[in-house]
Amino acid sequence: MQKIYKKIFPALLCAIPSMMMAQAATDVFKMSQEDLRGTARFLSMGGAFGALGGDLTVLDQNPGGIGVYRSSDVGVTVDFDAQSVKDGSGITTNQFKVACNNFGYIGAFKLDSEIVPNLNIGLTYTRPVSFNRHFNGRIGRQSSSLTDNIASYTNAENWRADDLDNSSPSSWDPYYDSNAPWMSILAYNSCLINPNAAGRFQGLSGQNSAISSEFEAHETGGVDQFNINFGGNIANVVYWGMGFGITDLDYKSTTYYGETVTNGIIEEFEPDGDGIKDTGRQTTGEANYGIVNSLHTFGTGYNFKLGVIIKPINEVRLGVAFHTPTYYSLKDESITYASADYTPNDPNAIAYGYDDQTNQGYLDEWWYKIRTPWKYMASAAFVIGRKGIVSFDYERRDYSGLYYSGDDRMYDNQLKQDFKDYYKNVNIFRVGGEYRLTPQFSVRAGYCYEQSPVNENAYNDRIEVFTVSTTPAYVFDKSTQYITCGLGYRYKNFYADMAYVHKKKEGEYHAFSSYVDSMTQSVVDSPKSKLTSHSNRVVVSLGVRF
């Protein structure tokens, strides 16, 4: 397996993708996630800023916070992020990134009015989502092979070898002419599935087979958001704001999955002149194969935000905000490549190898639209004397209401049901505090808890999870926790803040979904591995108020 891995993964890691089929529910969800990101002050208090305002991040959270400003503000934030992901077999993958994830300007314009003391405008850039992640691992002693899964749905749909064969005359291209699943075509032309004596497709594993696998995923990119906000205050009691966000999404991933199948069921070949030919018979032997998917998703979107902060008395602030979904228009480009080596158990038999790729040199593209969840926020903050602040935030997102629109209405309706089956409402709780040690120095701490977005039936393999045919793997996340702390310094108009953010997320990698075998009608479990992700970030913000 290592030979296959080393041959195809590094090459496609740098490749320019060029082929795509439709997105799956798990892919749309990935494009809709958000992270805890912003200025160092915002992060050091766990993001619990919905009732406070007066920070550049409010344009992403509660736009009403722009009305709190009495002076103009310009600032920049830099993140230093060390990530690690550990799989169930103990393999740990590390990476380190540096990025400028927030900068902006808020202009405060004072008015000669007691009812409307000021009107403000804000322009900011932020990266609410970073897709950067790298992990790899192993799954040993599997009860089934991905090739069995492919053979099962190929048989269920009654596809024949002639429908999948790409060695036919050049005028016939099964990827475009047969309507067969692309993974079925790829697997057949790589000898991962083969017709048996009964004329049905057979995967590589048999009764006496031993199966182990390796996997790796390398993801990069993010969502860049440009905010334009407008707001003010009414009698220094009600602070309001509204904002328009323009987003730019760019996501790249290269994923690998490979298996070693000993005592597998493989095709038998014999000499044929200067080459070899398929005898049409099957024998036992070892199969080593790998499949790599390279995907590039990119496009633009927009959203709208509205928020209010109310200060009934000086010691209490209450905030509410809602965000519309982000409406994206996206394009996918992708290529999938399979390579396999086969060694019969009979030492006198011929060893051979096959490979195939989905696009065969032709460019194809897929355009579609998605809609992320609505978001609702409620917040409360309490001022303790002139030195302390305690703040609480609650946020709700409905991932079951994700939306996808392509060219196939039946597929769109299927995804609508998949969103409801796989995902649910998510509740997010944030709490933060700040204490001013001196007029110049402050200390801060915070905590954020985000529930798992995945329904229990999907997470525990009680239902089949449908994916794009050439990308059977997916990851389901459990809850996410953030523990934060930080320091703040103020001197005249200048401020400097630093935050430490520890993020922990657990989940499971599924090589492919559990399914009901079309031949035996038995349930086949999903091969999976636990993933534990840790991120340790140091965030620094510098700014001037004037």
Characterise this structure.
There is one protein chain. With 546 residues, the protein is mainly beta. Helices cover 13% and strands 55% of the residues. The protein has 9 helices and 23 strands. The strands form 3 sheets. The protein has a 14-stranded antiparallel barrel with strand order 1-2-3-7-8-9-10-14-15-17-18-19-20-23. Strand 2 and strand 3 form a beta hairpin. The radius of gyration is 27 Å and the shape is elongated. About 2% of the residues have low confidence.
What are the key terms here?
14-stranded antiparallel β-barrel, Porin, about 550 residues, 9 helices, mainly beta, two-stranded antiparallel sheet, 23 strands, about 55% strand
Main β-sheet, in a few words? Answer: 14 strands, antiparallel, barrel
Widest sheet: strand ordering: 1-2-3-7-8-9-10-14-15-17-18-19-20-23
Helix content: 10-25%
CATH level-4 homologous superfamily: Outer membrane protein transport protein (OMPP1/FadL/TodX)
- Count of DSSP H/I helices: 9
Integer-rounded radius of gyration: 27 Å
Structural class label: mainly beta
Please name the CATH architecture: Beta Barrel
Strand content: over 45%
Tell me the number of strands.
Answer: 23
Q: Which fold does the CATH topology refer to?
A: Porin
Low-confidence stretches: 8-20
The domain count comes to 1
Mean pLDDT: 89
Distance between the termini: 62 Å
